[in-house]
Every structure is written in structure tokens, then in C-alpha cells.
Amino acid sequence: MVNMDNKNKDSIVHNHNKKRNSGLIYELLVRYIAKKLVEDNVPAAQSALGILKEHYKKGTLLYKEFRLFNALISTTVSSQSVAESILSEAKKAVQQHDAKALTREKSLLIRSINHTLNDSQFYKQHVQDYKMYATVQTVFNDWKRLNEHNIARVANYEDTIIKWLISDKSAKDQLDNNYDNVSSIVIKTMTERINKKYLNTLNEKQQDLIRTYSLKNENNDELFKNLTNIKIDTLKLISAYNKDHKNDKYLVEKLNKLKETVVSINLDDELKDHDISTFLMLIKLNEEFCLGEKNVQ
Asked: Nearest Cα to 282, choosing from 252, 266, 264, 259?
């Protein structure tokens, strides 16, 4: 564990803006999701997960900064030379980021958290090693505007991070912050809770869709196949129903509008939660179509 003198610690905390700390906000979102799942508040957990997936998605500067951030916070190396090499590469990457664009992304993230979650306790969640998070973000910011006025502070913080990288973290209680796994883990937990809560209202096909959606990072082909089949089945049933009930102009008109909506769904685009909700509705509609035809026969 790295020890910083109290003066240095107080300086970091005093000058640090936690709302613009990409690593800390990611950690707070993960903790918030877990907390709301434990409280069985699925809507709040879904909202927080939506924010995480939207603002930390691959290709964004937030995602790029977070990956560098996470490497410095979570990695343990065996020697100072390796630590110095990691820090040097991180510095080069940070200095290549578009600072203004990253600032805009962080402002949009803050707005989403404030407006969507609207929870005064969000920023008050306890995070172990908060001061280390503050140190990393501060040195990132200083690297982007390095000059003679902050060079001594940068050197001091870099030394702190190097000591952190070679310190033993095995005894610490840390969450796994791996971006590629956390969304899948959270959705799996959420899916289990949804299935348990709505066991008597979701049919087998709907539960299967939720399952494949929760595992989309592991098997996106299965999800694509599932959604394609639902789309095809819906269009077939609408066409068949329109043919057999062409005199019911009101219903035919409504079904044609639904048909246009279904046709417009592009499965090649990144799917959102509301898209899955639409497909859950289509599954139910298809079931009712089939039951209606059986009753007529």
C-alpha cells in the first residue's frame, strides 16, 4: 500500500473534481447498479447501466481514458522499470486525446447522471482508495497541459503512481472493473431478478430473448438469429391476418403501421434496451395471433 504525506493527500482531494474523474464515475456507476439490484430496484439499475453503456462505449474518449485509468489502478507489476514503462505509455496516450472533446463527453455524462438518476447520494458512495483515483485523474489532467508551473507536482504524482503499481494489492477488497465483463455480469444478475419477479408473465420465448440479450457480448450471433426469427414470424403473421381479415379496415390499418415499424428495425445497428422491449411485445403479439387463429378454426 502506498502512503502519501497528509499535505499531499489533502491537496489532491481539495483540488479534485470527482464528477470529472472517468475512473471514479465508472466505479460509482458499477457500485450503484449493484446496490439497486440488491434493493430489487431494477428500473434504477437499468437506468444506471444504460448510462454506463452509452457513455463508456468503445470508440468514445471516455472509454479510452477509462482503459488507461483502469490499467494504472488495477495493475500490479514486479519492478519499477516496468511501472515506469507503463506510466510512460499511458502519458503518450493521454496527450494524444482531444481534451476539448473529452471535456464535452464528461459534461454529457454528468448531465445524464444528474437528470436520469436524480439521486443526491450517487456521488456520496464510498470508494476504497479514493485518493488514488484522484491522483491518477489529476496527473492525467496535468499531462494534457504540462508546463513549468505544474512539473514538480506531476513528478510527485508520477512517483506515487509508480509506487502504487509495484505495491501488493492482493489483500484489498476490489471490484473487478474490467469493462468487457461488467455489463454482461450486471445484465445476467438483472435478468435473473426479472425472470424471478415476472415468472408468471413472461412466456418461454420472452425469457429466452432476455437470456440471449444478456449474453450478447458472448454470443451475438444467437441474439441476431433470435431477433431475425421474431421479425420474420411477425411479418408473416401480419400478412396472413390481413389476408384473412381484409374487411376489418381499422385493424388492417393498425397492423400495416406495425408492419412498417417492424420492417424499419435494423438489426445491424447497436440494439438498445427499448428495442428489446419492442421485440418482447412482438413475441406476445405473435402468441395472441396464433391463439386467435386456433380459436377461429
From this structure: 259
DSSP code at position 270: P
Could you write out the three-class secondary structure of 114-178? HHHHCCCCHHHCCCCCHHHHHHHHHHHHHHHCCCCCCHHHHHHHHHHHHHHHCCCCCCCCCCCCC
Residue from 73, 74, 52, 72 nearest 63 by CA: 52
pLDDT in tens, 87-96: 999 999 999 9
Mind listing the pLDDT tens digit for each residue in 46-73?
888 889 889 999 899 999 999 999 889 8
Distance CA 74, CA 176 (A): 9
Helix (H) or strand (E) holding 71: helix 61-74
Euclidean distance between CA atoms 4 and 7, whole angstroms: 8
Position 219, amino acid: N
Give the integer Cα–Cα distance in Å for 142 and 219. Answer: 41
Describe the crossing of helices 80-96 and 61-74 by its angle, rounded to 10 degrees: 170
Q: Which three cell numbers stand for residue 297?
A: 378454426
Contact call for residues 67 and 76 (beta carbons, < 8 A): no
Q: Could you write out the DSSP letters of every residue in 30-81? A: HHHHHHHHHTT-HHHHHHHHHHHHHHT-TTSHHHHHHHHHHHHHH---S-HH
Closest CA to 230 of 289, 163, 179: 289
Summarize pLDDT for 264-285 with one digit per residue, the tens: 877 776 776 667 778 888 888 8
Please state, for a pLDDT cut of 90, what percent of the chain lies above it: 27
Question: How far does the chain reach from its first CA to its final CA, in angstroms?
Answer: 74
